[in-house]
TrEMBL record:
Residues that hold NAD(+) according to the record: A3, V4, H5, F6, G7, A8, G9, N10, I11, G12, R13, G14
SUPFAM superfamilies: 6-phosphogluconate dehydrogenase C-terminal domain-like, NAD(P)-binding Rossmann-fold domains
Protein's UniProt keywords contain rRNA-binding: no
Listed name of the protein: Mannitol-1-phosphate 5-dehydrogenase
GO BP term (any one): mannitol catabolic process
MF term (GO), any: mannitol-1-phosphate 5-dehydrogenase activity
Family statement drawn from the similarity comment of this UniProt entry: Belongs to the mannitol dehydrogenase family.
Reactions catalysed, as given in the entry: D-mannitol 1-phosphate + NAD(+) = beta-D-fructose 6-phosphate + NADH + H(+)
InterPro entries xrefs: 6-PGluconate_DH-like_C_sf, 6PGD_dom2, Mannitol_1_phos_5_DH, Mannitol_DH, Mannitol_DH_C, Mannitol_DH_N, NAD(P)-bd_dom_sf
Length: 383
């Protein structure tokens, strides 16, 4: 059994690669980072250090590595004969990996079982997005039927994997906790067997619960913590006002989730408590700059702040804590984050009305529009 995994970064090596390895797959890592690929290609194994209340080390071997920028033919041939393709590259990058998947499908023997494609990104419908890109490449190549040689399934992945100490080489330090949920319907009776993966009929409640709790909470702590001068998430959550801000934001997202998906309030209370404990993990050095990365993406319409805030506003509630978190996002001024630089320039140059519509996708008729414009204006006025 063989899996091709795009993105040999933190979650790629520290979670997706690990679980696929433990499921018995040979892994072909594909990445555009030449230094990383060379290091993986030269190694026979790497270690995943799990840190938390119970710590341990797992070893991943039986992998190869391909530079997906320079060794495209080899990569396409690997995809053509793989059982699984996964990605952990970031949602904006999916369109760049789609052509190789499309080419692999064209080359694939029609007698092989369909290729299982799963995008493991923090976004709702990430695999749908990848599937659209793959199908569009196949259509423009005049071979739309090759799309039938793949099954595309959405997923939700949860494990905190911080940026790694460069001295660790290709080894990865991760938290002990993990959760990988995959929608089962696209596979019918033939879902891949990956111990540790939970298959569900409807991924909607799972991905929203994850994105609007783990990621909303994480990001709120990162942005509020940044405004308070904190460097790590563990430092930030130790600041009382930051923790209180995150707890309030999460109380709001839980209200939205419970109302939309009928989730059990007691289960959500325990889920929130568990994630706050995970964020405070003293063994994990996770920087607010990583968690706050790409603030423009995080302010998107279906993302961790605006998604639940819009639902609350539609039901007549003003999501005050989420709006306070959005104000902190606007203060995320990090010179080596290109989206932060772009956001800061936009705040200097353009009106709040325009910015709310362009960045958040919330239009003027929406009940969240005016509170968002006020939030943007208050930050602009304070600059
Ligand atoms: N780190 C976490 O805690 C975590 C947890 C759950 C989900 N995720 C999600 O996983 C994805 C990756 O996050 P990460 O933290 O591992 O980031 P990362 O930056 O550590 O890894 C991303 C990797 O993708 C590679 N890449 C970029 N463009 C590529 C391309 N065109 N083809 C192949 N590889 C390419 C990069 O070189 C990098 O090695 C994101 O969507 C993130 O939201 C991360
Ligand atoms: O990866 P992002 O940029 O969408 O979000 C940053 C972190 O919140 C995220 O990587 C978490 O560590 C992860 O989602 C935990 O499962």
């Amino acid at each position: 059994m063989k899996a091709v995994h795009f993105g040999a970064g933190n979650i790629g090596r520290g979670f997706v690669g690990l679980l696929l390895h433990e499921a018995g797959y040979e892994i072909v890592f594909a990445d555009v980072n030449a230094e990383l690929i060379d290091a993986l290609a030269a190694a026979t194994e790497y270690k995943v250090h799990e840190v938390g209340e119970v710590s341990g080390t797992r070893v991943v071997d039986n992998f190869r590595a391909i530079n997906s920028a320079t060794d495209v033919d080899r990569l396409v041939a690997e995809i053509a004969t793989a059982d699984i393709v996964t990605t952990a590259v970031g949602p904006r990058i999916l369109k760049f990996v789609a052509p190789a998947i499309a080419a692999g499908l064209q080359l694939r023997d029609g007698d092989l079982a369909p290729l299982a494609v799963m995008a493991c990104e923090n976004a709702i419908g990430a695999t749908d997005l990848l599937a659209e890109e793959v199908r569009s490449v196949l259509e423009s190549s005049g071979v739309p039927s090759a799309g039938a040689k793949a099954v595309f399934a959405n997923t939700a992945v949860d494990r905190i994997v911080p940026a790694q100490d460069p001295r660790a080489g290709i080894d990865v330090t991760v938290e002990t906790f993990y959760e990988w949920v995959v929608e089962s319907r696209p596979f019918g009776e033939k879902a891949p067997v990956i111990p540790g993966v939970t298959f569900v009929d409807d991924l909607g409640p799972y991905i929203e619960r994850k994105l609007f709790t783990v990621n909303t909470g994480h990001a709120t702590i990162a942005y509020l913590g940044f405004t308070q001068g904190a460097t790590t998430i563990a430092d930030a959550i130790a600041i009382e006002s930051v923790r209180a801000g995150a707890e309030k934001a999460l109380a709001e997202t839980s209200t939205a989730l419970i109302s939309k998906h009928g989730l059990d309030p007691e289960m959500m209370r325990a889920y929130r408590a568990k994630i706050l404990e995970r964020f405070a993990n003293p063994h994990l050095r996770d920087e607010v700059r990583r968690v706050g990365r790409e603030p423009l993406r995080k302010l998107g319409r279906h993302e961790r702040f605006i998604g639940p805030a819009a639902e609350l506003a539609e039901s007549g509630t003003t999501p005050a804590a989420l709006l306070a978190a959005v104000a902190a996002v606007l203060r995320f001024d990090v010179p080596d984050d290109s989206q932060s630089v772009e956001l800061q320039a936009m705040l200097q140059e353009r009106s709040a009305d325009e910015l709310v519509a362009d960045i958040t996708g919330i239009e003027s008729a929406h009940p969240l529009f005016t509170p968002l414009v006020e939030t943007f204006r208050s930050v602009q006025a304070a600059e």
